Amino acid sequence: MGVDGVIGEDEGLRRRGCSCGKDDFLPEESFKSWGNYVQALKETPNRFMNRVLTRSLDSTELHEIKAQSQHEMKKNLSWWDLIWFGIGAVIGSGIFVLTGLQAQQVSGPAVVLSFVVSGVSAMLSVFCYTEFAVEIPVAGGSFAYLRVELGDFIAYIAAGNILLEYVIGGAAVARSWTSYFATLCNHDSDDFVIIVHSMPDDYSKLDPIAVVVVCVICVLAVLSTKGSSRFNYIASIIHVIVILFIIIAGFTKADTKNYSNFAPFGVRGIFKSSAVLFFAYVGFDAVSTMAEETKNPAHDIPIGLVGSMAITTAAYCLLSVVLCLMQPYPKIDKDAPFSVAFEAVGMSWAKYIVAAGALKGMTTVLLVGAVGQARYLTHIARTHMLPPWLAQIHPKTGTPINATIVMLIATAIIAFFTDLKILADLLSISTLFIFLLVALALIVRRYYVSGETSTTDRIILITCLILILGSSIATATYWGVSENNDWVAYVITMPIWFLATAGIAVFIPQARKPKVWGVPLVPWLPSLSIAINIFLLGSIDGASFKRFGLWTCVLLLYYFFFGLHASYDTAKELGENRIGDGWKRVEEGQSVSTVTASGVSLDEAK
């Protein structure tokens, strides 16, 4: 079935409106009856192989998949909106809360170097995201990019972690909001939570204020994207003024003696903090999801993404320097570090300005996160990996109301009872995992085109990518398990990474050039992004990886019982599936082509 079929199907959806019947959640053929479902389960291995080997096309994401929503999103954002969305999305609890915790317990004044390392990694990821967002300007963000380059299954696993990233990130910010609100009211943060002693320590502090804040953000996010942009713009200006005040006023109270023991926890402490503080840079990917609502993606997205990240990184470094110059690192408060620091240097009145600015910043982070996560969920639901009810766009507001409400309900539940440290560590794993996949997908996009890349080049590419991943994992693993600073293993692993990257650059011609804006120094920059992201993963504690593994198991269970069959049926209706010749086509360097209603593949139509 081609585009016409999709449109016809959408008309049926429009007639149903916002109903919540079975067909709004599981309308696919596999779920029409128990007999169909049992038959679908029997075909799971073949269906799974089909989805693993199927890669989407740029045109499919831009037209057929996009058409699954009932209405178009409104294109009313400019590069100026995107810059402020980027600032609003990123500068929040990461700097105002986690800086204190990491400086006090993990890295000391060298926390500024932790921000530099995290910032470099984030900027490399920004480059990768920008090229994809310009070429494929849809609401799906990294999910759509991975579907095109790495296939359905990898995209689904990434999608689950994208959703986890947003839910956890929003919950963490909402809980931080309560801490600074308490400071503004001249109270301890525990005064505004309900402590349940019968529950485990990490889950015993119930936070009703965080739930209320998330509900208010939900209302703003569903009303209008442009309205959210205006609110974010005003709030972010106030936020920037407060940040400038903190930097200037803080330097007037600086004491260089506080820098005498710059790195008390050593190099290992710097990188451990970097892994956690990556949380502070999470949010810029939400801007890439707004590509579908951007007036001129090719011009606006590079300026918006790269510009906001450069401003954010500079602000983070200056703020962390100021904090550690104002107070000795052991005395830095882990919950509201900047407010307490000003109080300690005799500027008690300033703590209220800081707290108000922090609240403004966290509010915009929640708002931009709510806008971004709903658009991710919308595009995922368009493929039917999740119920298509979540893909509906409201005709009046032009926003995905169902997706917004569902995501923020999940955020509110997690924010109600989960401790910030657990949220930050788990969030960093999900984010780093997604970013390394996007960097990997960019290399594949530049050096592999179905039907054009030769078998020899494809084998060299696969070999080099395996070596890049393997050497990066070996480096991170050795760093994570070794207690000493022995460097012998790095002498082996790092040259392997270098030679593998050089192998791609020297021996494989680029099969696809970016049409408008491209990442410079490919494959070096995306390969470096892969290595840094994996290295930072090696600095995260084992308990967080266990939680990450548990979440991945939940994703796989849903996928094999529901998502796989729903997406398979949807792809079959669109003519994507070519059962039986998948392995042969991959071996020949060809993708499983989307077929139009006339039976001619889109590749052939070109």
UniProtKB/TrEMBL annotation:
It comes from the Eukaryota. It is found in: Membrane. Residues 517-567 form the Cationic amino acid transporter C-terminal domain. InterPro entries: AA/rel_permease1, CAT_C. Keywords: Amino-acid transport, Membrane, Transmembrane, Transmembrane helix, Transport. Belongs to the amino acid-polyamine-organocation (APC) superfamily. Cationic amino acid transporter (CAT) (TC 2.A.3.3) family. It is a multi-pass membrane protein. One of its GO terms (cellular component) is plasma membrane. This is Cationic amino acid transporter C-terminal domain-containing protein. Coiled coil: none annotated.
